[in-house]
Write a structure and sequence with these properties.
Elements: H1 2-22, H2 37-49, H3 67-71, H4 83-88, H5 106-117
Helix pairs in contact: 2-5
Length: about 120
Amino acid sequence: MNQLKLPLTIIAGIVALLFFQSCTRESDLTNYPVVSFTNEVQPIIVGNCAQSGCHGQNDEEFPLTSYDEISGRVEPGNGRKSQIYRVITGRALEFMPPSPSDPLTEDQIRSIFVWIEQGAQNN
């Protein structure tokens, strides 16, 4: 029984560390500049997602061209639970944009995440 105690304690410690690390609310975002939907987020999403055959104006099921369409896929203030963030980071069932398209850059993903965390404003 004592032989199991140490490994279980180590595993429990690692799990607790990962849990508490993932629960932190991006506290450094307070000093992050306000991310503009119009100047930053919309161009990223339209340029990478709203192309012909994907999530453009003619996509009746899942268009991503306007603020209303895009903001309807996020939970303001909660980037990690937002559908768009989960899809562009591979944390959902499907990853976007699909191959052979290039994935979004880390800076593009960060801008979208910060915009959501800042309340997903129409600015």
